[in-house]
Design brief:
Strand order of the largest sheet: 9-15-14-13-10-11-12-16
Number of strands: 24
Number of domains: 4
CATH superfamily of the largest domain: Endonuclease Chain A
Structural class: alpha+beta
Distance between the termini: 59 Å
CATH class of the largest domain: Alpha Beta
Largest sheet: 8 strands, mixed
Low-confidence stretches: 302-308, 517-534, 671-676
CATH architecture of the largest domain: 2-Layer Sandwich
Mean pLDDT: 84
């Protein structure tokens, strides 16, 4: 923060810069509003140090693969904040939450990073505390605020104890009793280093302090400014409905500021987004004035001269300052009673208190309002006012690995219905009833079949209950390695070629050339250079061996690093480039070269055999799917009958010898030291 200046940056750029070239091992997002499509296409790419195509379908295919290199990604959102736009298509956990006392309202990102320098490797946790929801408005259109901190393994951090409590609180919000693998992995990381300094200072400045609801907001902020005469500025787009609200009074009482300026939220047409009564009540308070942010901060860069293009201020900032210091409390907390209460009541909120290093002369951000004429009032009572009035704690989950469909209905909802109907675009798919509460309940096979068909195109359904309005549910999907691929299928030759490619850029170029939807001339121009023309099975055996070597290496690397989902996708999944897809393509192409088909299937047998021996726990965990793959490989006997020999006996004898030699372990000769 400089004199008369508010530092600002694009959130996605700041996040990408904080990650750098480091690998994201896992990610957890907390949000009130959730737009799955925007999250997938425009937020997830920031986690990976690679470029993605601007073509949405191709971007999703590339992201589908990139996600397999993470251990887990999870999004926790308020079920009433589910966007009406788009759907979820990628493999990450989406967990709806709700509170009987208010809203699940935090906006946080937690990224567990893998650091590497020379021979040293260590983990660190990136902690983002923000006012931005996972929506287009939150990341692109609104004026938001965010803070990024990093907890490094082996170093002290004032964030550890609050982060551990936050993990416990988030888990407690989910009544289903499901596992929360990403949160538990973060908990494990935080517990590696038990040294935790209490609230303290460094070089005279407060160290960062995370707010997770242990106390009320006034008590939390007030603790850090006791005995100091500081000015208070508040930026909040929403206030309590009642003009006699005690929220601001309690804050002033806890901090005893010298002077207070409160941001006046205004719409693009100049109207004020609060009631006239509240506006007047604030004007009458001693030492309190309404204020405005600098106009240049509110306008978009492309429409700087247009008043109609002003950004909506969604930031929540409590700024305490004088000429000696500046303390900022930022996050999800509006100036409302539900936001300021203890964590056990009201909303679920988070924030962070930081004291940046002072730079230059400090001054007010807000300019006091001195108009003589009263503004026009267009009250917008609270942030959640636009959300659906009716909702139920209903979760639906489909398992791609077992074909099982189930629901969970929390008995703490607003009503206890006897029966419900699940619909898509107004068409009833199946009924739920009689409804049983507080545990996962299996639905019948017909309902599961309907859901399996629907999930290929959308993951959002509508649920209607008796005489109440419908509410939307984002279906939770498990075992997505077995979900049909987003786009298309490849030939056996193309799958092997795809396996052999090394970089994301090479794979993207390959996909552009082979996705049927992108075969038009305008898209083909995106491929740099001419695609190399391969011989059948691209250079015969060498290409096959190289491709399987790449597959085995990637599966082994995934299992060694705990990315079982990635290994499952590649070795057992139903995607366009998985091993079962390759085997089926080989078996279903009777006109192809029988020798190439035979060698390909022998390589598949060898890879599955070696992985099973080296990672027996992985094989046991996926034993049913493993048997299906082995069953496919048994069909390789069909190809043997296509080889021509003088007698069947001679054919059997030759192939028995060939397979014995093919699977023979051959040790490489040790290099002579003098020859090195």
């Amino acid at each position: 923060m400089g004199e008369n200046n508010i530092a600002h940056a694009i959130l996605s750029d700041a996040l990408a810069e904080a990650i750098g070239e480091r690998k994201v091992k896992l990610a957890v997002f907390l949000t009130f509003e959730f737009d799955p499509s925007f999250f997938e296409e425009d937020i997830l790419p920031n986690l990976f140090d690679q470029s993605f195509s601007h073509i949405p379908t191709l971007k999703l295919v590339s992201l589908e693969e990139a996600l397999r290199h993470t251990q887990d990604v999870a999004v926790y959102y308020d079920r009433r904040g589910l966007s009406d736009h788009g759907t979820a298509r990628l493999d990450y956990r989406r967990i709806p939450l709700s509170r009987s006392t208010g809203y699940f309202h935090p906006k946080n990102i937690f990224l567990l990073l893998e650091n590497e320098e020379d021979d040293d490797k260590w983990e660190s946790l990136l902690v983002v505390t923000s006012s931005a929801n996972l929506t287009r408005n939150g990341w692109w259109r609104n004026l938001e605020v965010a803070d990024i901190q990093e907890v490094v393994y082996g170093e002290k951090s004032t964030l550890r104890s609050e982060l551990l409590e936050l993990i416990s609180r988030v888990k407690a919000e989910d009544p289903t009793g499901d596992e929360h693998q990403a949160l538990e992995a973060i908990r494990t990381f935080l517990r590696k280093d038990t040294e935790e300094p209490s609230r303290g200072k460094k070089h005279g400045r407060w160290l960062p302090q995370l707010y997770v609801g242990r106390e009320s907001v006034p008590d939390f902020i007030g603790w850090f400014c006791k005995g100091e005469q500081l000015n208070l500025e508040i930026i909040s787009p929403y206030f309590d409905v009642s003009p006699n609200s005690s929220t601001l009074k309690n804050l002033i009482e806890a901090m005893d500021p010298k002077e207070v300026r409160l941001f006046l939220p205004e719409e693009a047409d100049g109207s004020v987004a609060c009631s006239k009564e509240y506006f007047v009540a604030i004007q009458k308070m001693p030492r309190v004035k309404w204020g405005r942010l600098p106009e240049e901060l509110l306008r978009t860069s492309t429409q700087a001269n247009s008043k109609s293009e002003r950004r909506f201020v969604h930031a929540k900032i409590y700024r305490l300052w004088n000429q000696e210091r500046e303390i900022l409390f930022i996050g999800s907390v509006n100036l409302t009673s539900p936001a300021h209460q203890l964590g056990r009541s009201g909303n679920f909120e988070t924030g962070i208190l930081v004291e940046p290093e002072r730079s230059g002369r400090l001054t007010w951000w807000l300019t006091p309002i001195d108009e003589k004429t009263a503004p026009r009032f267009q009250p917008k009572d609270f942030e959640e006012a636009d959300q659906k009035e009716f909702w139920e704690d209903c979760s639906i989950r489909y398992h791609w690995d077992s074909g099982k469909l189930e629901y969970f209905w929390d008995s703490e909802g607003s009503i206890k219905p006897k029966r419900a109907f699940v619909k898509s675009k107004g068409v009833t798919l199946f009924a739920i009833g009689p409804i049983r509460f507080d545990r996962w309940i299996d639905l019948d096979s017909e309902a599961a079949s309907q859901m399996k068909t629907l999930l290929v195109s959308t993951s959002i359904v509508e649920v209607s209950v008796e005489r109440h309005a419908e509410f939307r549910v984002l279906v939770r999907e498990e075992g997505m390695a077995l979900k049909p691929s987003i786009l298309f299928s490849l030939t056996a030759e193309q799958i092997l070629e795809y396996w052999s490619l090394l970089s994301p850029e090479q794979r993207e170029s390959f996909l552009i050339a082979h996705i049927p939807q992108l075969g038009s001339k305008e898209f083909m121009g995106l491929v740099s250079g001419k695609q190399q023309q391969m011989e059948t099975m691209f250079d015969k055996f060498a290409g096959i061996y190289h491709a399987f070597n790449r597959l085995e290496a990637s599966v082994r690397d995934a299992l060694q690093k705990g990315r079982e989902a990635d290994a499952e996708y590649r070795l057992l999944g139903e995607k366009y480039h998985s091993l079962p897809s390759l085997i089926r393509k080989v078996l279903d192409e009777p006109e192809s070269d029988a020798v190439n088909q035979y060698v390909t299937l022998l390589c598949a047998k060898e890879v599955t055999k070696r992985i099973a021996m080296e990672f027996p726990d992985f094989q046991r965990k996926n034993r049913l799917r493993w048997k299906e793959v082995e069953g496919l490989l048994i069909r390789s006997e069909e190809i043997k009958t296509r080889f021509t020999f003088e007698t069947p006996e001679e054919r059997a004898k030759f192939l028995e010898w060939f397979e014995r030699m093919f699977f023979l372990e051959v040790a490489l000769p040790e290099a002579d030291e003098d020859e090195e």
